[in-house]
Amino acid sequence: MTRKNAVETAGLSHRYGDVQALSEVSLEIYEGEFFALLGPNGAGKTTLVNLLMTLLPPDGGQAWVLGHDVAKQPEAVRRLLGVVFQDPALDDRLTAVENLEIHAVLYGLPRRRRAEAVQRAVAWAALEEAAKRLVRTYSGGMKRRLELARALLHDPRLLILDEPTIGLDPQGRLNLWERISSLRANGMTVLMTTHNLPEAETCDRVGILDRGKLIAVGSPGELIAANGGEGATLEDVFIALTGRQLRDENATARDLMVSFARRGGEHTR
Question: Mind giving me the DSSP string for 118-183?
Answer without folding.
Answer: HHHHHHHTT-GGGTTSBGGGS-HHHHHHHHHHHHTTT--SEEEEESTTTT--HHHHHHHHHHHHHH
